[in-house]
C-alpha cells in the first residue's frame, strides 16, 4: 500500500545501523543514505496543492447585449505545483555515530531526525564495541597497514599460538587495570566488587583507548585473526596494536583488515546492506531497534547514577590516575627493539 509522504516522514526519527564497505568514506555512506531517503519520500503521494478562490471575469448575454461578469472559482495555487517549487523534501537531518575510517568496514550507526540526539546519549553511555582484526607477520610499514610503505621485513617461524596468546593476556591484564583506574571507583568497596562481578565497570567519561577483551580467533602463520572488544578506540589504534604485538613477539606485523562486528547494541545482523538503503528498510530497522535503544539507554543511565553513588575512589587512586599515563600495551616498542637486539 503506497505511503503518504508526510506520514512516512514522521516515522523517520530514530537510530539504525548500516554495513559500511571498505574503501568508502563514511561521509559518502551518510550522504548516499540521505539521498536515497529524499528520493523515496518525494516519490510517495504528496499533499494536494492548496486551493484558493479566484474571481474570474466572463462575458454573458443579457438584456442589453453582452455583459462583463465576475465568477468566483476555486483553483489550485500554482506556487504549489511541483514544476514551480521543486521537490517537497530537499534536506533530511542524518547524523553519524562512531565513525569508521576509509579502510575499515562493518557496523556503522546512523541517526535520522530526532534520532541524532540519541547518538549523543549513546556516546555518553560509553558502550563497548567489537572488532575482528586481521594481521600478517613478517613485515612492518609506516602506517601499520599492509598497504603502507614497507620499512622492515622479519622472520616469523618462531611464533606459535601459545606465545601469541601470552602476549594477548598481558595486553588484556594491563588494560583491565587501566579500566578500573579510569572508572574512578574505590577498589576496596563492596560496591566495586558487585560491579566487577556483573561486568559493569567502565569509564563514565572520555578516557584513552581501553581494550576490555582480546582473543585469537585464527592462527595460520603468517596470518592471524583477533577479536577485540574495546572502548574509545580508533581503527588506527587497533592497527598499531597489531604492530606492537609483532614487536613483542620479536618479529613484525601489519594489519590487513579491520571490521567492526558490534557497536553497542547494534550487531552485524542489524546492519543494512547497501541494497537495503531505502525508505522502507530503514523504517523497519528504526522500528525494530528502538525498544533495544531505549532499554539500553535506561540501563546506562541507571549504571551512571549507581557508579556516581559509589564514587568513593581514594585520593591516592585519583593522584595515580593523573600521574600515570595510560599505555596502549604494557610494554613499549623501544623495549621490544632492545630484546630483539639482545637475541
UniProtKB/TrEMBL annotation:
<feature type="region of interest" description="Disordered">
    <location>
        <begin position="314"/>
        <end position="343"/>
    </location>
</feature>
<comment type="similarity">
    <text>Belongs to the pseudouridine synthase TruB family.</text>
</comment>
<dbReference type="InterPro" id="IPR002501">
    <property type="entry name" value="PsdUridine_synth_N"/>
</dbReference>
<dbReference type="GO" id="GO:0009982">
    <property type="term" value="F:pseudouridine synthase activity"/>
</dbReference>
<dbReference type="InterPro" id="IPR039048">
    <property type="entry name" value="Trub2"/>
</dbReference>
<dbReference type="GO" id="GO:0006396">
    <property type="term" value="P:RNA processing"/>
</dbReference>
<protein>
    <submittedName>
        <fullName>Mitochondrial mRNA pseudouridine synthase TRUB2 isoform X4</fullName>
    </submittedName>
</protein>
<dbReference type="Pfam" id="PF01509">
    <property type="entry name" value="TruB_N"/>
</dbReference>
<feature type="domain" description="Pseudouridine synthase II N-terminal">
    <location>
        <begin position="93"/>
        <end position="234"/>
    </location>
</feature>
<dbReference type="GO" id="GO:0001522">
    <property type="term" value="P:pseudouridine synthesis"/>
</dbReference>
<dbReference type="InterPro" id="IPR020103">
    <property type="entry name" value="PsdUridine_synth_cat_dom_sf"/>
</dbReference>
<dbReference type="GO" id="GO:0003723">
    <property type="term" value="F:RNA binding"/>
</dbReference>
Amino acid at each position: 500500500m503506497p505511503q503518504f509522504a508526510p506520514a512516512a516522514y514522521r516515522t523517520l526519527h530514530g537510530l539504525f545501523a548500516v554495513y559500511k564497505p571498505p574503501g568508502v568514506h563514511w561521509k559518502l555512506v551518510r550522504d548516499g543514505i540521505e539521498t536515497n531517503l529524499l528520493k523515496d519520500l518525494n516519490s510517495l503521494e504528496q499533499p494536494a496543492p492548496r486551493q484558493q478562490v479566484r474571481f474570474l471575469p466572463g462575458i454573458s448575454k443579457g438584456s442589453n447585449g453582452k455583459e462583463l461578469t465576475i465568477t468566483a472559482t476555486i483553483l489550485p495555487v500554482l506556487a504549489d505545483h511541483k514544476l514551480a517549487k521543486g521537490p517537497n523534501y530537499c534536506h533530511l537531518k542524518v547524523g553519524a555515530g562512531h565513525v569508521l575510517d576509509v579502510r575499515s568496514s562493518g557496523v556503522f550507526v546512523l541517526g535520522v531526525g530526532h534520532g541524532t540526539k540519541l547518538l549523543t546519549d549513546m556516546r555518553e553511555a560509553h558502550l563497548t564495541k567489537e572488532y575482528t582484526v586481521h594481521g600478517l607477520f613478517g613485515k612492518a610499514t609506516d602506517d601499520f597497514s599492509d598497504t603502507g610503505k614497507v620499512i622492515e621485513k622479519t622472520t616469523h617461524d618462531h611464533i606459535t599460538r601459545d606465545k601469541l596468546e601470552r602476549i594477548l593476556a598481558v595486553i588484556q591484564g594491563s588494560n583491565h587495570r587501566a579500566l578500573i583506574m579510569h572508572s574512578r571507583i574505590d577498589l576496596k568497596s563492596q560496591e566495586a566488587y558487585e560491579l566487577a562481578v556483573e561486568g559493569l565497570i567502565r569509564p563514565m567519561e572520555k578516557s584513552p583507548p581501553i581494550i576490555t577483551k582480546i582473543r585469537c580467533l585464527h592462527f595460520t602463520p603468517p596470518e592471524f585473526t583477533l577479536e577485540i572488544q574495546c572502548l574509545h578506540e580508533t581503527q588506527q589504534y587497533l592497527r598499531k596494536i597489531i604492530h606492537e604485538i609483532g614487536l613483542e613477539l620479536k618479529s613484525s606485523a601489519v594489519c590487513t583488515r579491520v571490521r567492526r562486528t558490534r557497536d553497542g547494541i547494534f550487531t552485524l545482523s542489524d546492519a543494512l546492506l547497501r541494497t537495503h538503503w531505502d525508505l522502507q528498510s530503514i523504517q523497519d530497522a528504526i522500528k525494530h531497534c528502538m525498544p533495544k535503544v531505549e532499554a539500553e539507554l535506561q540501563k546506562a543511565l541507571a549504571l551512571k547514577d549507581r557508579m556516581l553513588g559509589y564514587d568513593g575512589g581514594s585520593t591516592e587512586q585519583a593522584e595515580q590516575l593523573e600521574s600515570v599515563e595510560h599505555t596502549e600495551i604494557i610494554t613499549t616498542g623501544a623495549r621490544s627493539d632492545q630484546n630483539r637486539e639482545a637475541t
